[in-house]
Design brief:
Layout: E1 4-10, H1 24-41, E2 45-57, E3 63-76, H2 81-92, H3 122-125
Antiparallel strand pairs: 1-3, 2-3
């Protein structure tokens, strides 16, 4: 199974001057090209651009919503499935990890997750 990691960076807000590039739209395209090529050189593939709202304070009591554009990149994680299964086997072979019995498992029948009591430390109460 292929796994990816993601990274987002702010989109350029100003155009970039370059030789032969005239006009604000061409300068903005140049800034985007530079950003995409920089990330590509680091091994990241461009995925999409997202515009996200962010509520910010403006004054003492009021808030305004500003919209920011981010560029989203991804790259494949180099871990293979065999590496993942090896790490799972190594984690299960450790003897210091507490084992939950059926009566120690938390009650999941409640719909309100905030009403649950905190988990007990099983290592302090269990006889070895």
């Amino acid at each position: 199974m292929t796994r990816f990691e993601y990274k987002s960076i702010p989109a350029p807000k100003k155009g970039e001057k370059a030789r032969g590039v005239k006009g604000s739209d061409a300068r903005m395209a140049q800034a985007m090209t530079t950003a995409l090529n920089d990330m590509s050189a680091k091994g990241w593939d461009y995925l999409r651009a997202d515009t996200l709202p962010l509520e910010e304070r403006s004054g003492i009591r009021s808030k305004t919503i500003h919209y920011y554009t981010v560029l989203v990149f991804r790259r494949e994680i180099e871990a293979t499935v065999e590496d993942a299964s090896t790490s799972v086997e190594a984690a299960s072979s450790q003897t210091d990890a507490p084992v939950l019995d059926a009566h120690d498992a938390p009650d999941t029948s409640e719909t309100d997750q905030t009403m649950r009591t905190p988990r007990r430390d099983l290592t302090a109460t269990r006889d070895h």
